[in-house]
């Protein structure tokens, strides 16, 4: 009945319903207007995510197509070949091609769906090191699993693909680094988001959704103050027989 | 594809995806296992909510029926006839009958759906007064819109209906009052929930869902650590052709 907004991505999407999470905030903001569908897959890169496309966005579907889809990958693609995340690494050119395939597939399903590309956030090496030590102590790898520079090249190409395909995008990598102390303010372990980091994603995404008319969508049923308490059936008949 | 958990209720449900909200926490806890569907209608009582039943839970539906539904009304039904919320008031006997109708309707749609009844939270008169003053200043009504005692009778009957129908229930009214200082710890305006109040609903609901097997539900796709990086197609073929 309500339009769907699908959040498709890696752990930063999967965790977006934690306290202060950007996904839950989107659901709250558009409550009674859209349904937010969480499709976050922790640890996934774009290569693995391609296998999900046909299942999450079937070409032939009984239901309505999503009104919007966020595609938020790259943090794992950008894992270094020399680090502990090497199995997640996807070369930059393949990352770009995978993003193109995702967008094309969603367009094949539903040409009207608003697709938003989100870049990975920046990487804070100190935060990554501290996290590894807190998890593995002296056994923590001394080699970085990601660097800010390499992740930046993925972010840059994500924005370029959005431009090439005529889509809105959120350059989280750049946006976050505009704030002094972004390393601790926005990142909890040098990669994942604090509540303030979640607020950045939320703020940027809501701008795009509102510009596309999402805040103007109708409520699914009357506001309680509009219900005729003497004859409530009348208030609902108008809406529900539509 | 995934089982649905529908949260049906008034503002305390509608607001459950705010930061620290109980609904978002349920979505986070069972992420990649269930989809949480938010159907909260601020200001609604059970009388008005009955008009939504056929739309939210159609008797004939293409899609899968919900795995679980929470029914969380009563805070508005219990508004006093003498107060500012009088138009929301529903007599106790009608509230009981309306709860029965809701449960019966959901059972008619899908006999296997787990239905959980949740009572309204307790009422803190001082919190309500302060809230009214903060909103309306000197024009705030001096008459209470709700009392803890009256709301308690609705909570008691909600639990009785759950027992009569063989359903699990959460007696939020009683549970919260077991904690000293519940008035400020759990309630933000004498009625709605603080993050700690949300945590009470979440904790009680997860106990019920886990007992019904929800934590044992399978993930929708392989965990990233289980993906064969040399041959990822194999990891997905096993799951996706099922």
UniProtKB/TrEMBL annotation, chains A, B:
Record-linked InterPro entries: GDSL, Iah1-like, SGNH_hydro_sf
Entries under Pfam families matching the protein: Lipase_GDSL
Keywords of this entry: Hydrolase
GO molecular function, one term: hydrolase activity, acting on ester bonds
Entries under SUPFAM superfamilies matching the protein: SGNH hydrolase (SSF52266)
Family named by the database record: Belongs to the 'GDSL' lipolytic enzyme family.
Name of the featured protein: Iah1p
Lineage: Eukaryota, Viridiplantae, Streptophyta, Embryophyta, Tracheophyta
